[in-house]
Amino acid sequence: MPPARPARPAPGHLISYTHALCPYAQRVAVLLLEKRVPTTRCPIDLAAKPRWFREVNPRGLVPCVEHSGGVVVESLDILRWVDASFGEPLAPLASQGRVDALLGGPCEAVVGAGLRVAAGTDGRHWGLGTRPSASQKEAFLRAVGDLAAALEASGGPYLAGPAVSLADCALVPFLERFDLALRGVAGWAWDEEDGAARRLAQYLRDVRARPAFRAAAPDDQLMLAALREHMSLDFFDYESVPDLALHPHWDGGRVG
């Protein structure tokens, strides 16, 4: 039985339409937790979407947030809207230009290069392979190096400086999946290649220790087992996965 459509949110409250495995949806979950935004989670089974969800988002995609004034879709647009609409922005105004540059440059480049190296020479796009090529590895490490350079230039410990920002929220759900896939599926310890890669791997460990990032993330061992089973980063598009299947630290759908 598909879930009923939630009641329309009260002012100052959100409904977050999401999926437990989607890295784009995880971006939004991290930010909502960081900013402690009053939120009702509504998991959408992407293998059997309820008909009413098309009324919320005609494209039928997650993430999507509904609020008293309407609906916002696309993960980066949601991040920017939430950050501007609830309390003070995560990063100070002086860092906003740096955050925008990171989102449109190094973060996007790492996601693209990560998808290609994770697929390797024997996997489809968004799939996982066991044989990444030398050129795919080099491209990923170049993108990692650019991010590590931005991290050093900001003074850290986060990408845009001393405060966690939208750039961290957008990057980490992807980087943690690439880390799992490259180590556990392709057998490549990517962070042993050079100093920049080691620096970014340490950054990943540090930022994932934050409660919001830890709460929003799937369990590493369960996620790795699922990646190996499906050999795909996007199996959530056609498999029904309950929230608690890979998030045992959630209590009855309560995150954090």
Overall description:
The protein is of the alpha+beta class and 256 residues long. It folds into two domains: 14-89 and 234-246, Glutaredoxin (3-Layer(aba) Sandwich); 95-230, Up-down Bundle (Glutathione S-transferase Yfyf (Class Pi), Chain A, domain 2), CATH 1.20.1050. It is built from eleven helices and four strands. The protein has a four-stranded mixed beta sheet with strand order 2-1-3-4, with helices on one face. Helix 5 runs parallel beside helix 7. The chain is globular and about 50 Å long.
Essential attributes:
single chain, 256 residues, alpha+beta, Glutaredoxin, Glutathione S-transferase Yfyf (Class Pi), Chain A, domain 2, 2 domains, 4-stranded mixed β-sheet, 4 strands, globular
Mean pLDDT, to the nearest integer, reads 91
Could you give the order of strands across the largest sheet? 2-1-3-4
Discrete helix count:
11
Query: Distance N terminus to C terminus?
Result: 27 Å
Structural class by sheet pairing and helices? alpha+beta
Low-confidence stretches: none
The CATH architecture of the largest domain comes to Up-down Bundle
The number of domains: 2
The fraction of residues in strands falls at: 5-15%
